[in-house]
Amino acid sequence: MTRPFTAGCASPPTIRQRGQHEVFCGLTSIIWLHRKIQDAFFLIVGSRTCAHLMQSAAGVMIFSEPRFATAIMEERDLAGMADMHDELDRVVDKLLARRPDIKMLVLVGSCPSEVIKFDLPKAAERLNRQHAPGLRVMSYSGSGIETTFTQGEDNFLAALIGEAPSAGSEDEAARLVIAGCLPEVVEDQFSRLLRDLGIPGVHFLPARSSSATPAIGPQTKFILAQPWLGAATAALEARGATRIDTIFPLGEQGTTAWLGAIATAFDVTEARFEEVTQAPRQRARAALRHYRPWLEGRRIFLFPDSQLEPSLARFLVNETGAEIVEVGSPYLHRDLSAGEIAMLPPGVPISEGQDVDMQIDRCRAAEPDLIVCGMGLANPFEAEGRLSKWSIEFVFSPIQGYEQTGDLAELFARPLRRSAMLTQGLAGGEGVSCN
Amino acid sequence: MQLSMWTYEGPPHVGAMRIAASMEEVHFVLHAPQGDTYADLLFTMIERRKSRPPVTYTTFQARDLGGSTADVFKSACQDAVERFKPAALLVGASCTAELLQDDPAGLTRALAPGVPVVPLDLPSYQKKETWGAAETFYRLVRAFAGGRTRPQDIAPNSCNILGPTALGFRNRDDVREVSKLLEANGLDVRVVAPLGARPADLARLPEAAFNIVLYPEIAETAARWLEKTHGMPCLTSVPIGVAATRRFIADARALAGLPEAPVRGADEDRLTWYSRSVDSTYLTGKRVFIFGDATHALAAARIASDELGFKVCGLGTYMREFARDVRAAARDYGVEPLISDDHLEVEDAIIEARPELVLGTQMERHIAKRLRVPCAVISAPVHVQDFPARYSPQMGFEGANVIFDSWVHPLMMGLEEHLLSMFRDDFEFNDAVGASHLTANTPVATEATREATAAVVLADRLWTSDAEQELKKVPFFVRGKARRNTEHFAAENGIHPITVETLYDAKAHFAR
């Protein structure tokens, strides 16, 4: 049960570019946050652009009334600041009249609200006083000038941790906090594995209900389930919690290292660990075998999107035999991702930030077999005859843990399989034989 | 401050993007923070465009706010000109950049990029997407057709088609259908813009005799300017529906000075016969709720009422700029006009109107789905489904055929409805049993669920049990409506509980 990574030799080259970033802003995290915390409502204080972004990015979820909305600032709001707080109160009253079931209201700052320095924490404090105790009000910033995509979740969790109850006694504090939104199926699997390992007092952050945030104190150990949680890490450490440092639970290797790090921190015996993880590890390897033929030796280029990219690249290289042309990440938390980066083959270029046109040039020149990129870029690449996988699926699909290892590989293999099917099928001629 | 869960329109810079993406050789430099690039996916995903929209986002960040955001703009602008070598450069700001007041127009002038620059003023906190598109198209037309002089000799039958854009509802197919119709009826289509046009084509606009404004929301501002500046008349009747198509061709021929003649292409009209065929008797008086952009909503109301024999029970638009026409039309149909961009208000109005068919945008499609009312989409905002692989215009005679299919199919077809009422008492032909060929897989109602249902009825006692029994004799496919109508009637008249009498009083009340 040794940790399967050690800090590598020379750090790989990093491409740092600034120019057009083809990534979502932090507001977009709300799309999964609002599904996760079932009694919370996210109210963006922003512009029509924010509202339009949310519905464009979350288009498919229109079927249910979402637990997020935008308070759209208008010309007359910008005229005087005092007026804007009144306006916000009015919007909140309207919202609460429609959704009296809401227990936590989260005010989310946007680019325009940051630029005009609208004081959201102050507004949250005032609203808290007005609506306590039935409703908790908090705030964080998901603005594009400060955050990309998944960093919105980071800021939200940092705010949530700031409001977490303090442990009155040693017994009250969570023993283990798993930070970062995970799909429920993954949470349930991890809960079972950790129970079987005999780890007590496990809490997921965020919890499924706004009132279930655990008490955090010096007795608390925490581990990240997602790589984008720099601010949340700082907030947990400020509470005295200690981080279990490892790689992320993607793939059989990542999941084993991740669970192993927890086991080590809680003095679980090697025999127990083997006993608990042996069967799912074998299942994960068996599932991977289906997809390896599609991915082995394939050259893959990852555009920046969610910050999961270094972990995905590590998985692709070590567990599917793919080659990595470039790993882009909108932002790198170097200390949180150090383990992942150390496990990449030497010389794999890592790019942080983006100049999208130049990156597209590099990508075209490299002629990769598969391009992992955002929805704005995917179809244009396909139209050039290149194969792509939209990266947003990695934040919406269950990909972590042993039982999803095959699914994760399948997400990369599917475009390749599909292309092979269509190349044969659409070429005409023989057609599909009945024999 | 306005509370918004879903919006009908994006911000004005998205409208500007739609114009840039519609045209060739145009590039748009948008001063905007990280994240605004989401708008690219509207084009690449919803419309499945094969190229990224021609937009460069400057992507400034918090650390730039100290004073260098103008430099960020300048270098992005310079790079874009070098890389894309456009024939026209649009520059503008998104909502956040508007607050910074960096003056993209002035910065670009100072750069002297060597290409025609069209600065855009897009007030994000006042205006919306469609306005932004109209304004951008007008600015481009003004920039390129402005200094031109009208030629001496202009063929009187020459015309331009103005208004079709990227992300427009079926615009791609409308242009093909309308061009074909115009050509068949003796007109000569010169420039179609903005869709597919280059800046140089805009300079040729004054060379045609007149303009056809296919989508007033997008092209009216530009067309009025061309009228004022170059004396070009414009045709604003919109050829959606059979009668409107005939009128459109007649108007176009009159503007071109061509004599009256039978409309060519009318033999493709199937709507007229299908609507007269006996099967369509069942469409008579179906209550239809209509909501969309002004052009499509008005056309839909006309077709619904005049060509399909529906009853318009609600009419509205999310475009305040075109509210006047919709108000006037609503008066003619005897309904209260709904001018709102609040989809919750639209939902309330739909519930209130109790329609049997909803014609709306993707937003109303979702509302109708929740209410289990049939629905067809007639207008932007669009969704990936609104870009079908097949040819399916809304305009012209083929457009009318497409409309007949797409509105009538969600309703129960007449023959089917007739058979259902003939056999409604058949022992295995009602909602209590599944279709006979599916018997093996049909769940049987258990005693427990029957008891549960009975308990609910007893608990609210809105209906007497006799009335409840009588209601069950109403064919199941209209029973829900009968229940709603009766409860509505009872509530309005303070009747409680609902008796068999009430049921038939309500039936008489709502008879038509």
Describe this structure in words.
The complex is a heterodimer of chains A (435) and B (512). Chain A is α/β, with parallel strands linked by helices and 435 residues long. Among the domains of chain A are: 16-21 and 288-423, 3-Layer(aba) Sandwich (Rossmann fold), CATH 3.40.50.1980; 26-147, Nitrogenase molybdenum iron protein domain (Rossmann fold, 3-Layer(aba) Sandwich), CATH 3.40.50.1980. Chain A is 46% helix and 15% strand. Chain A has 17 helices and 14 strands. Chain A has helices spanning 30-36, 48-57, 75-79, 81-98, 111-115, 120-131, 151-162, 184-197, 230-238, 251-265, 270-295, 309-320, 334-342, 356-366, 375-383, 393-396, 405-425; strands at residues 14-18, 40-46, 68-72, 104-109, 136-141, 176-179, 202-205, 221-224, 242-243, 299-302, 323-329, 350-354, 370-373, 388-390. In chain A, the strands form three sheets. A six-stranded parallel β-sheet of chain A has the order 1-12-11-10-13-14, with helices on both faces. A four-stranded parallel β-sheet of chain A has the order 3-2-4-5. In chain A, strand 8 (221-224), helix 9 and strand 9 form a beta-alpha-beta unit. Chain A is globular. Mean pLDDT of chain A is 91; it is low at 1-10 and 431-435. With 512 residues, chain B is α/β, with parallel strands linked by helices. Chain B has four domains: 12-127, Nitrogenase molybdenum iron protein domain (Rossmann fold), CATH 3.40.50; 158-264, Rossmann fold (3-Layer(aba) Sandwich), CATH 3.40.50; 271-411, 3-Layer(aba) Sandwich (Rossmann fold); 445-510, Orthogonal Bundle (Helicase, Ruva Protein, domain 3), CATH 1.10.8. Helix content of chain B is 46%, strand content 12%. Chain B contains 21 helices and 14 strands. In chain B, the strands form three sheets. A five-stranded parallel β-sheet of chain B has the order 12-11-10-13-14, sandwiched between helices. In chain B, strands 3-2-4-5 form a four-stranded parallel β-sheet, with helices on both faces. The longest helix of chain B has 17 residues, at 129-145. The two termini of chain B are 44 Å apart. The relative contact order of chain B is 0.09. The interface between A and B is large, with 62 and 58 residues.
